[in-house]
UniProtKB/TrEMBL annotation:
Bilayer-crossing regions: none
Keyword Cytoplasm: yes
GO MF entries: long-chain fatty acyl-CoA hydrolase activity
Subcellular location: Cell projection, Ruffle membrane; Cytoplasm; Mitochondrion inner membrane; Mitochondrion intermembrane space
Protein name: Acyl-coenzyme A thioesterase THEM4
Length: 229
């Protein structure tokens, strides 16, 4: 698995695959607002197959592919700041990036999310790159938690708007091999006032292996209470 992964990374033909290509274009708008939830040469056959399968499901409108950017659009940040922050953004934060998208292409998290708002589900197809190692050969628990947080967070966001994670409870059942593809499957359980409850499991593509199970509690932010910086 690791050898296949290394080979794929070595043979990346696109400009994104060339070392330094991302750094060079860091400040360009095109780079910042590129949609990363689309296939790139680092994607394995498994990830491509899942992507193609769900793009077909999008044709009747039941499922939607969620685009994904490294940085929030400035107007979104402005809106968030106006509603929830009591101090202005510090200079450095204008270059802030979404953590799961901040690693070089193919080395960290390669993923695409699809949502079904009727079924209140968000699925994330995730390929875990070689820079996410914990125990040798396997994925770091913090990396798994990151994607569980992001997927359940998206599920809560679609139901409740702007939310923050208040509690995340994860059981790690079996280790995830580095460079493999897994499915993070999240489901909205209930909404009680400002509390949004989501559950989630992480399985292998053939569904035979349960890697992790989790529950999350998300709280809808209250515009009357600013987040302190
Ligand atoms: C920047 C631009 C943004 C633009 C956004 C645009 C689009 C967004 C797009 C997509 C989003 C999609 C995906 C999300 C992606 C990633 C997800 C990552 C999310 C995170 O990674 S986020 C970081 C970690 N997260 C924190 O850093 C939170 C720290 N925390 C706090 O900031 C506060 O804690 C807060 C705000 C959570 C609540 O504070 P608060 O003052 O508003 O509310 P309060 O405390 O009154 O709680 C209300 C009721 O919830 C109960 N409650 C609260 N906490 C509980 C707990 N832990 N367990 C059990 N019950 C709890 C209370 O008991 C009460 O219950 P009751 O009403 O029944 O008494």
């Amino acid at each position: 698995m690791l050898r296949t992964c290394a080979k794929r990374l070595r043979t990346l033909g696109s400009p994104l695959g060339q070392p330094g290509a991302q750094r060079r274009s860091f400040s360009s708008e095109k780079f910042i607002h590129k949609d990363y939830a689309l296939p790139n040469p680092s994607w394995s056959k498994d990830l491509r197959l899942l992507f193609d399968q769900f793009m077909k499901k999008c044709e009747d409108g039941s499922w939607k592919r969620l685009p994904s950017y490294r940085q929030n659009f400035p107007e979104k940040i402005q809106e968030f700041q106006t509603l929830y922050l009591d101090s202005s953004l510090a200079k450095g934060e204008q270059h802030a990036q979404q953590f799961p998208r901040s690693l070089d292409v193919g080395l960290g998290f390669e993923y695409v999310m699809f949502c079904n708002d009727v079924e209140r589900k968000v699925l994330c197809f995730l390929q875990v790159g070689p820079h996410l190692q914990g125990t040798p050969g396997f994925v770091h628990g913090g990396a798994i938690a990151t994607m569980i947080d992001s997927t359940t967070g998206m599920c809560a966001f679609r139901a409740g708007g702007i939310v923050m994670t208040a509690n995340l409870n994860i059981n790690f059942r079996s280790p995830i091999p580095l460079c493999s593809v897994v499915v993070v499957d999240s489901q909205l359980d209930k909404v009680e006032g400002r509390k949004v409850f989501v559950s989630c499991n992480v399985r292998s593509v053939d569904k035979k292996t349960l890697h992790s199970e989790a529950t999350g509690l998300f709280i809808k932010l209250d515009p009357d209470k600013s987040l302190k910086k």
